[in-house]
């Protein structure tokens, strides 16, 4: 009998009504009143819930921007700096994030489906339950990210750095992980059915309860 899937996914963060307070796994990070969490960048209003679909924000400085539930679908964010940004439940489907900096961003439950994150830096980002289906993460740095419960079906993860990444309970059906670094990666009860693990680096990789590419369950 295989291991039971007794882990739980992170709960949703709590945001204050009058301040940009973010509660992540029990830690509160206080920044500024919500009224100060708005700024103008390249003529666009950067704020929670903003409609930035198709916006040109290439190479924009969006450090610690508060973009909770914003619509950034199809936006050009090539080389943009989104380090420490709050993108909780944001829509970035089809966005171009090539070479973007999302270090320690909070992007849980966000939609990155079909987005291009080639060579993007997502070190330490919170990406739990995010949707990356059909996205391109070729050469991306995902070291130390929390991607538990994330949807990564048909995702291009070739040569990605997944060192120490939490991919427990994630959905990686038919994902391309060719050449990816899975050193210390947590794939507890992840679904890897049909995925390509050719030339991956697997040292200290946790595969307990994972469904392997051939459909077998690793005990």
List the helices and strands and how they pair.
Elements: E1 14-15, E2 22-24, E3 27-29, E4 39-41, E5 44-46
Antiparallel strand pairs: 1-2, 2-3, 4-5
Task: Briefly say what this structure is.
The protein has about 220 residues and is low in regular secondary structure. It contains no helices and five strands. About 0% of the residues lie in helices and about 5% in strands.
List the defining traits of the structure above.
single chain; little secondary structure; three-stranded antiparallel beta sheet; elongated; 219 residues; two-stranded antiparallel ribbon
**Order of strands across the biggest sheet?**
1-2-3
Helix content: under 10%
What does the main sheet amount to?
3 strands, antiparallel
DSSP E strands, number: 5
